[in-house]
Design brief:
The protein has 7 helices and 8 strands, in the order ββαβαββαααβααββ. The chain is α/β, with parallel strands linked by helices and about 200 residues long. The two termini are about 25 Å apart.
C-alpha cells in the first residue's frame, strides 16, 4: 500500500496582518506561527507512526521551510525534493492582492466557483486540467517506486485540492471532503494496489 500525505504550508502572514492572495510569483517566508505549524505536523506524523520515506515540496520558501520543521520535529533523516509542479498557482493580475481587490476584479461568483468547485478563474495559471494531470503522473510514479511506502508532499491550498481527483471522480470526492486544506493542515490518500481512496482531509494537528 502506498500512502500519500499532503500538507499545506504554515502561516506566511502575521496575526492582524491583512492576508493577500499570494501565489507562485511571491516567495514569502514562514512566520513564527507558520514554523509552529510545521512542527505540529511533524509531531502528529510521529505520533501516528506515519513517517515519510520521501518528502516533496514546491520550490517556494514557505513549503521548504515547512518541510524543514517537519523533518526536525519528527527526527527524520531525509532531504526534501523541491519541484515546480507543486508551486502555488500564478494568480496573474490578482497576485499579492487583498481578497477584496480580487473579488472586485473577478466577482464573487468566480471566487465561489473556485472555493467550492475548483474552477480556476480567468487570469490564473495553470488550469485545473494541467494541475490534475500532474497529480496523476506523480501518483502513478510513487505507486511504482514506493508500493509499500509513505510519501509526503508539502504544497499550497490551490494545488493540494486537485489531489482529490486521484480516486477518479473529483466532483464527488470534493463534495464529500470539501476542497480546502487549512494552513498547516493535511490530508491522506491510500493506494491499495488497484485504486486511490481518500482516508481523511483537512486535519489540522
Amino acid at each position: 500500500m502506498t500512502i500519500l500525505i499532503i500538507a499545506r504550508h504554515g502561516n506566511t502572514f502575521e496575526a492582524g496582518e491583512t492576508p493577500r492572495r499570494v501565489g507562485a510569483a511571491t516567495d514569502l517566508p514562514l512566520t513564527a506561527a507558520g514554523r509552529g505549524h510545521g512542527r505540529n505536523i511533524g509531531a502528529y506524523l510521529k505520533k501516528i507512526n506515519l513517517l515519510p520515506d520521501e518528502i516533496y515540496t514546491s520550490r517556494l520558501l514557505r513549503t521548504r521551510q515547512t518541510a524543514d520543521e517537519i523533518i526536525a520535529e519528527a527526527q527524520l533523516q531525509l532531504q526534501p525534493q523541491a519541484t515546480v509542479i507543486f508551486n502555488e498557482l500564478d494568480y496573474g493580475p490578482d497576485e499579492n492582492k487583498t481578497e477584496d481587490e480580487v473579488i472586485a476584479r473577478l466577482g464573487q461568483p468566480a471566487i465561489t466557483d473556485w472555493e467550492d468547485l475548483g474552477i480556476v478563474p480567468r487570469g490564473w495559471n495553470p488550469n485545473a486540467d494541467v494541475i490534475s494531470e500532474r497529480w496523476q503522473t506523480f501518483a502513478h510514479d510513487i505507486v511504482k517506486s514506493r508500493p509499500h511506502g509513505i510519501v509526503l508532499v508539502v504544497t499550497s491550498n490551490g494545488i493540494a485540492r486537485f489531489a482529490l481527483g486521484l480516486p477518479g471522480d473529483f466532483e464527488t470526492t470534493s463534495r464529500q471532503y470539501g476542497l480546502k486544506l487549512a494552513t498547516g493542515a493535511l490530508g491522506m490518500l491510500e493506494h491499495d494496489g488497484k485504486a486511490w481512496t481518500v482516508q481523511n482531509w483537512n486535519i489540522r494537528p
